[in-house]
Structure formats: C-alpha cells, structure tokens
Amino acid sequence: MLSALRQFRSSSSSKNVNFSVKYLPHQLYPEASKDGEDKYEWYKKSKYNDSEEKMQMYETLMSTYGKQVGIEFDFHGTVANTLDAHRLIQHYQEELGPEVADKIVKSLYDQYFTRRAHPSASETLVKAATAAGIDKAKAEAFVADEYEGLQETKLLLREQMSNGIDSVSGEAPVQ
Fold it and tell me: pTM for this structure?
C-alpha cells in the first residue's frame, strides 16, 4: 500500500488529488502477552506446526520479496501484544495529524521487521515517536502513562472488529 501511494504521489496524476491515510488499530494476536515471546519460534509453532523446513521456506520466500523492495527482514526478536503501539499511533494521529502517524508506523515497522525490536517496548515506542519529530520528553511521558489514550484505542479496536476487519494492510518501509 505504501509503495503504491508513493508511486501515485510522484505521478503527474496526483496534482489534482489530495488525500491522507488514517490508521485504525487492529491486533492480529490480541491474546499475546505484553512481554512477548521469541518471534522465530512463535511463527514456526503457530504457523508451520513446528516444522523447521516450512519455516525456512517462509523465511526464504519473504526475504526474496523483501529484497525486491529494499527490505532486509530479520525473523528473530520478539512477538508481543501491540496495544501500546496502537495507542501511540492513535494519540499522535489525533493530536498531530496523519503525516506524523505515518512516520511513527514506518519507524515501528522498520524496528520490528528489520531490527528485532520489541513491538511495544517503551524504547521502541519512544524511538518511533522521536523519528516522527515528537519531542523525546513528551514521547516518554506519553509512553509512561499507560492509561492515556487507552480507552479510545480499545474503542477503535472494538469498532474495527464489529466492522469485520480481520487483517492488517500495510508493508514494512523501504529503507
């Protein structure tokens, strides 16, 4: 999706069109713990019935796809609950707009998919916020207050579920 948007924005057709992307939360694995677990082992067990061979096939395929668009996937790290990441995105999207939310999402994707970052660790969230131009002290204060924006984000999650949303659209950023 992001590649298609970049391509459109650079075309002559985009001169007469204005749009922005609004991010809405969806958790693929809402039952995941906040602490998380080993990403590679989790994928191998939950997606490939503990088959090392199938996991290696997946890794090879995704690495090939990633390299075609400049992404060096790292299949290790932590898979965990992403509620706090969604809370961060929603808060700053409402406060500072879709461009800031887009930068946060790009940073989160890059950190998770290529740098083994825990998807909801305070360090990951603050890094994503500062990559989007948010003052570090403000970002740290928001991340530390685990209740700020929580109800609004949970409401949006429930709304998406009631609308039948059952997947995430997006891609890791091109570096």
Answer: 0.86
